[in-house]
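Long-time lurker, first post. I've been practising inverse folding by hand and with some scripts of my own, and I keep getting stuck on stretches where the structure tokens seem ambiguous. Below is the full token string for one chain I'm working on. Before anyone asks, I'm not after the true native sequence, just a reasonable design that respects the backbone. If someone could post their per-position residues I'd love to compare against what I wrote down in my notebook.
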């Protein structure tokens, strides 16, 4: 077994060894945003609304990032499973070329159309609009860094080395945590920059992370040697990467679009609900980022074993992952419901905002288990190279949030109707996608299910030596 192989050994041990650093990296990404919200929250809810409004376009950026990110993650994982490092390097080269081009294109669009993009939300508050525009422009200038870092992370994760990106991203978080209060509140000789300071701090931290990734890449010749990034790309390889990443990217982009429409609906209740949604989504990310990290781990695990043609191991790993994430999902539900006030009070002090935030967390808390199993199942689909099913389910039910929000908010629930629309759709996504995956397994590989579920006494979960088929 090679150092980074996920195709042999104890499944539980391999999954945890891979997943824990990836989940840690996800928490680091969450902490970037939470750190900004904590310090911007000290300025006031109006500043939070500005960052939250501009932040929708950073969220939308994930649609572009995910195309080469998923292509690199799945392509590298499957290539490593087949012991073909030359193919892995081709995925790495083309993913890096794609992400640089996409960052420059998207950043340019945001800067040129900044006023129209912020104007979409009809905020009608001049100070919030101006701060949102300033934040958007500064963040856009740093997009090459914030685009490259997730792709570098995906490359290492697909290779089975999740500890390296965790450590590098953690350094960036520490940098951001140090700079944020200095620039936002104006500590020492630095002026008080508030929203602008949050943007500048984020760009500096992300640039620092990119530099470290590049230094690390130069020392990892088995992955990054001979890439020739300035050489024209192979359009066939670009097509393969796009085929893997586009469904996930489309889901992410439409999801952000749906959220933006919901934000416009929410805006009719004033700036406080916008701040509530922004802060609440950061708190909810406790489970969302955990699930996303495990989703990435499941994709890498399934991808390598798919490349090695080890189907029983894929089955077994999926059910183990579902068990682990079910426990995490239930724990997240209990946390959001019973600790809503202390959690929200970390970010703001205004009682009205806290009161609305408690309601938000308790309603969204009910869907955490289903969100976790949806993410795990999506990772399993992605590892197989089947990225369409999770996208179909996600797009369908995310899109239904808009009419559901309009209906529920108009029948007496008011603003809470929007929160219920989000929570209920998450529940359905988890149920439907899991059922879809189980049907796929049953139809295509029903002869392997008994062994994968433990009926084969020779197939030992904790000490598996061979399960090739």
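-- Answer (accepted) --
I ran through it position by position. Result:
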């Amino acid at each position: 077994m090679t150092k980074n192989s996920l195709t042999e050994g104890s499944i539980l041990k391999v999954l945890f060894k891979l997943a824990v650093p990836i989940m840690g990296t996800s928490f680091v990404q969450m902490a970037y945003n939470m750190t900004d919200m904590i310090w911007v929250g000290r300025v006031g809810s109006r500043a939070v609304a500005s960052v939250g409004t501009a932040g929708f376009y950073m969220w939308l950026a994930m649609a572009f990032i995910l195309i080469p990110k998923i292509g690199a993650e799945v392509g590298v994982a499957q290539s490593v499973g087949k012991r073909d490092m030359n193919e892995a390097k081709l995925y790495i080269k083309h993913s890096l070329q794609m992400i640089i081009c996409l960052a420059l294109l998207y950043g340019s669009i945001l800067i040129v159309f900044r006023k129209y993009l912020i104007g979409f939300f009809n905020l009608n508050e001049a100070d919030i609009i101006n701060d949102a525009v300033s934040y958007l422009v500064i963040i856009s200038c740093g997009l090459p860094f914030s685009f490259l870092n997730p792709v570098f992370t995906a490359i290492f994760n697909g290779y089975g080395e999740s500890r390296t990106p965790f450590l590098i991203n953690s350094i960036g978080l520490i940098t951001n945590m140090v700079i944020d209060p200095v620039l936002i509140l104006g500590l020492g000789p630095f002026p008080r920059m508030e929203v602008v300071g949050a943007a500048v701090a984020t760009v500096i931290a992300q640039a620092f992370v990119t530099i470290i990734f590049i230094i690390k890449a130069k020392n990892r010749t088995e992955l990054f040697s001979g890439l020739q990034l300035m050489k024209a790309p192979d359009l066939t390889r670009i097509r393969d990467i796009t085929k893997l990443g586009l469904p996930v990217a489309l889901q992410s982009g439409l999801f952000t679009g749906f959220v933006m429409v919901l934000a416009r609906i929410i805006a009719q209740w004033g700036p406080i609900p916008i701040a509530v949604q922004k802060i609440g989504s950061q708190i909810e990310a406790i489970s969302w980022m955990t699930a996303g990290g495990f989703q990435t781990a499941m994709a890498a695990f399934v991808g390598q074993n798919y490349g090695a043609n080890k189907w029983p191991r894929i089955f077994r790993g999926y059910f183990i992952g579902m068990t682990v994430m079910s426990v995490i999902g239930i724990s997240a539900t209990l946390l959001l419901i019973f600790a809503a006030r202390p959690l929200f009070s970390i970010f703001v002090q205004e009682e009205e905002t806290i009161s609305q935030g408690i309601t938000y967390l308790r309603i969204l808390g009910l869907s955490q288990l289903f969100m976790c199993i949806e993410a795990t199942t999506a990772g399993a689909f992605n590892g197989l190279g089947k990225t369409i099913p999770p996208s179909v389910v996600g797009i369908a039910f995310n899109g239904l949030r808009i009419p559901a929000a309009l209906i529920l908010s108009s029948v007496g629930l008011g603003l809470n109707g929007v929160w219920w629309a989000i929570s209920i759709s998450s529940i359905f996504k988890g149920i439907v996608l899991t059922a879809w995956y189980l049907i796929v397994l049953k139809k295509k590989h029903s002869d392997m299910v008994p062994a994968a579920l433990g009926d084969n006494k020779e197939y030992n979960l904790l000490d598996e030596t061979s399960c090739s088929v």
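A couple of notes from the structure itself: The CA atoms of residues 187 and 241 lie 46 Å apart. Residues 45-81 form the longest helix (37 residues). Happy to go over any region you disagree with.
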